[in-house]
Write a structure and sequence with these properties.
The strands form three sheets. Strands 1, 4, 5, 6 and 7 form a five-stranded mixed beta sheet that branches. This protein has four helices and eleven strands. By secondary structure, it is of the alpha+beta class.
């Protein structure tokens, strides 16, 4: 069975379960009733040890400087999540959208800053000649899928934010700090996909 078939089967099986009470979300921290639609691409590389492509935002960006993220961003008017995620990955990393074999959209994640983020899972060929757009991406890296989907590899942290104690997951991978929304989206995906 190839990676696309395996992930598709696990994705379908996991999304048939009602896990709504177990999923991480910051909706209670978001202000206002209207949120901005956004999408990210969870690009899994098709290799014997699959990885997930993550980016680090430039340290001089106004919003979330230096943070680790999936390729992604706001949906343009008329775009669905899949189209937006593929467009953003192409803009940020020159990842050709026709190379991505989309499996599907996973659980919506509402951020504390008011974005409704739809993660889109896809399989991409290994060793694509990715070129970071310097205005949006400082670096990219590819941690193993098995490492990210194993809850034992994450630590739970707490911070006082917006008048409340907030818990979040964190992992250090080769000097990259993966935390916040990116970590939560990975944790939600791990609850849906029984990779082990």
């Amino acid at each position: 069975m190839d990676l696309y078939q395996k992930l598709s089967g696990l994705f379908e099986e996991g999304h048939a379960k009602d896990l709504s009470d177990q999923l991480l979300n910051d909706a209670n921290l978001a202000s206002g009733d209207v949120h901005t639609p956004a999408a990210v691409l969870i690009a899994v590389t098709d290799r014997p040890e699959p990885g997930i492509i993550l980016t680090q935002r430039p340290r001089d960006m106004r919003d979330h400087p230096g943070q680790v993220a999936f390729p992604g961003g706001k949906c343009d008017p008329g775009e669905d999540a899949v189209t937006a995620a593929l467009r953003e990955a192409e803009e940020e990393l020159a990842l050709p959208r026709d190379c991505a074999r989309v499996i599907g959209a996973s659980d919506l994640y509402t951020t504390g800053t008011g974005f409704d983020v739809t993660p889109v899972l896809a399989v991409v060929p290994p060793d694509l000649p990715l070129v970071p757009n310097p205005g949006e991406v400082e670096a990219w890296f590819e941690p193993p899928l098995s490492l990210l989907l194993d809850s034992d590899n994450w630590t739970m942290q707490e911070i006082f934010w917006k008048g409340k104690m907030r818990r979040y997951l964190e992992m250090d991978y080769e000097g990259f700090r993966i935390w916040g929304v990116t970590a939560a989206i990975i944790a939600n995906l791990a609850r849906r996909i029984d990779w082990a």
